[in-house]
């Protein structure tokens, strides 16, 4: 079951035929209660449970277990298992196993969410930089903005933007950004081959 935009959860994938797409409101039925309370629930003898839904009872569900998938304090999905008449009741160990499974899903999705957020932030930074580059006629402002964008995207404490003078074989720091930017002298000049920066230019 996946959380939809309207706040309900919809049945989206299953391993056996069932009542089709089912939508669940938090707080209603077995699944909705587990989602609202953000905890796993076992309902053996499901047809007699006050949380039973008629369509599942009609479909022959005898025992059921549900575990919400919680990411950053918010339910994003729910994993549900059921057994028909004649099937063994679910045990506490079964719930523990399902909790571990849901936790693994939450951990992976949390990692993917953070990666997506990082990528979105970088794209916004690049878009902002692109607008500045196309709109500004001030070279110093453009280079400083490029240095700041590089520091933000790479999470670097300091970025220096050096311009090369091929004729004199020197490098001049034209712009900088980061924690040490205020200490960077505008007249810093290196020769090709001098230090790591000069060596990279000479190569």
Overall mean confidence score, pLDDT: 83
Q: Which runs of at least 5 residues are low in confidence (pLDDT < 50)?
A: none
**Number of beta strands:** 9
Order of secondary-structure elements: EEEHEHEEHHEEEH
Helix content: 40-55%
Oligomer state of the chains in this structure? single chain
Number of helices: 5
Major sheet size, sense and barrel closure: 3 strands, antiparallel
Residues in β-strands, percent: 25-35%
Provide a descriptive summary of the structure in words.
There is one protein chain. This protein has 203 residues and is of the alpha+beta class. It is built from five helices and nine strands. The strands form three sheets. Strands 1-2-3 form a three-stranded antiparallel β-sheet. Strands 4-5-6 form a three-stranded antiparallel β-sheet, with helices on both faces. A three-stranded antiparallel β-sheet has the order 7-8-9. The two termini are 57 Å apart. 18% of the residues are buried.
Structure at a glance:
This protein has helices at 29-37, 54-58, 92-135, 139-154, 195-202; strands at residues 2-3, 9-10, 23-24, 41-43, 61-71, 74-84, 158-165, 170-178, 189-191. With 203 residues, it is an alpha+beta fold.
For this entry, give a set of tags.
three-stranded antiparallel beta sheet, 203 residues, alpha+beta
Question: How would you summarize the topology of this molecule?
Answer:
Blueprint: E1 2-3, E2 9-10, E3 23-24, H1 29-37, E4 41-43, H2 54-58, E5 61-71, E6 74-84, H3 92-135, H4 139-154, E7 158-165, E8 170-178, E9 189-191, H5 195-202
């Amino acid at each position: 079951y996946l959380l939809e935009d309207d706040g309900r959860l919809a049945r989206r994938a299953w391993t056996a035929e069932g009542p089709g797409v089912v939508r669940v409101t938090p707080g209603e039925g077995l699944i909705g209660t587990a989602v609202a309370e953000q905890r796993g629930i076992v309902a053996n003898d499901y047809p007699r449970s006050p949380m039973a839904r008629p369509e599942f009872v009609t479909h022959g569900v005898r025992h059921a277990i549900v575990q919400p998938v919680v990411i950053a304090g918010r339910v994003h999905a729910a994993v549900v298992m059921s057994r028909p008449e004649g099937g063994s009741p679910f045990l506490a160990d079964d719930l523990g196993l399902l909790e571990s499974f849901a936790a693994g899903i939450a951990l992976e999705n949390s990692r993917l969410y953070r990666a997506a957020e990082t990528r979105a932030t970088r794209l916004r930074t690049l878009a902002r930089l692109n607008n500045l580059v196309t709109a500004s006629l001030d070279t110093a402002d453009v280079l400083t903005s490029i240095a700041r964008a590089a520091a933000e995207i790479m999470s670097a404490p300091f970025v220096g933007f050096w311009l090369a003078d091929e004729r004199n074989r020197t490098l001049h720091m034209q712009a900088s950004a980061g924690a040490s930017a205020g200490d960077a002298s505008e007249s810093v000049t290196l020769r090709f081959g001098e230090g790591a920066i000069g060596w990279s230019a000479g190569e």
